[in-house]
Write a structure and sequence with these properties.
The chain contains two helices and no strands. It is an all-alpha fold. The chain has a domain of about 35 residues. The longest helix has about 30 residues. The model has no long low-confidence stretch (mean pLDDT about 80).
């Protein structure tokens, strides 16, 4: 009785995944060594930065909306020329 185990070969995708995994490990180690464990980027930090950027854009948009509303409310003859 012979048992034939499946013949496994290493394909190009396996090699690519291995190289990518090793590269991620190297980058993670370098980041930790360069900036320190306290300053490493995390998903929570990235999300907070995105929230702050969204708030800043909303504030700028609100300021621009107020300016446009003010300009629209001012009659054309009362506006001062822009030099």
């Amino acid at each position: 009785m012979t048992s034939s185990a499946p013949h496994q070969t290493i394909g190009l995708t396996t090699i690519s995944r291995t190289v990518a995994s090793l590269a991620v490990g190297v980058v993670h180690t370098l980041e930790r060594a360069m900036v320190g464990p306290d300053r490493m980027r995390t998903a929570r930090g990235n999300a907070w930065e995105a929230i702050c950027a969204d708030r800043a854009r909303a504030d700028q948009r609100a300021a621009l909306d107020r300016l446009v509303a003010e300009l629209a409310a001012t009659p054309l003859r009362d506006r001062q020329p822009v030099a």
